[in-house]
Write the structure tokens for this entry.
Amino acid sequence: MAASIDQLIAEKIGALFGRNTAITGITALPGDASTRRYYRVRLNGKGTPPSLMAMQLPAGSGLAISSEELAVFKAAPKELPFLNVHRFLHRVGVRVPQIYGQWEADGLLLLEDLGDIALWDRVQGLAESEIVAWYKKAIDELLRLQIAGTEHRDDSCIAFQQRFDEKLYVWEFEHFIEWGLEKRPGAKAATKAIAKLRETFAAIAQTLDRQPARLNHRDYHSWNLMIHDETVCVIDFQDALLAPAQYDLASLLNDRITDAVVQPHIEQQLVEYYLERTIELSGRTISRQEFFEIYRLSAIQRDLKVVGRFYYLDLVKGKPGYMKFVPPTVRRLQRNLAQVAQTKPILPLLSEHFEAML
């Protein structure tokens, strides 16, 4: 490895674009929950982009950079999941960043710079009609990923080697119980209440496991969709897998503080749009009632998981910045739990632990 990240970046850019390419600046970007680090590199040279992104992989990460709970491959991946999934998504027409160069052994990828404006940033301050229009664009890109991706299944893509099954759903529910209830500071989780929650969670896991599986991004939310040249571009897709179609839609419309903009009546409109477009594109008949039930269960399951994750990131990883998202997530959970007969009975059990539900 080069002595520093700056030297490594300079070496690879010289190899790509020529030794006369000038680097006019390298800026480290704020990190998210990922262990990867990103840098914006500004260039000045003939035939080069004005800037690009350098992705630095964590030392010792090897090939498996998927999230830890997805380490379920029968055989170890032969290449970085990011590169493997990128190749497939690009082939089926999903707008993903261009890869200029890749050096896995050195832990460095050079990618297209899609800018700093995520979908969440783009919709701030807009009229309701414009918010709806942007989220419809995001849904159109999601449907391209889900429908074209599923129709052109390629088992060499690791996304098709992983499925959101009952085992993984239960793992995520247990993640919530462990970190969102049992290990959080000051928590007092009653044994009987935990048993009742586990009973309900197991039933949800079985219901979701029985649903038809479609290719899913797995983290398709407003901060993983970048707006570049007025188009929606997809990033952070390395954990793609097979799951119910509603999972990614629930992620898009129910993540962090999304409902501060995508309020319930807008959410309803966008779910209807997704459903109508799915029927048009797939030619399938879909029960609206069943679709909405699985959508809400997917939203509940995912929000419970992320509450546990936010506490885990705070207590274990030393990343407290996500704790500000717990109250809005819990309030959304309260609303969704109350709408499903299967989950309504556990609402009082959870209300005892989360002030935002009172």
About this structure: Residues 62-66 have pLDDT under 50 and may be disordered. Strands lie at 22-28, 37-44, 51-56, 99-103, 108-112, 214-216, 225-228, 231-234, 241-243. Residues 118 and 226 are 4 Å apart (CA to CA).
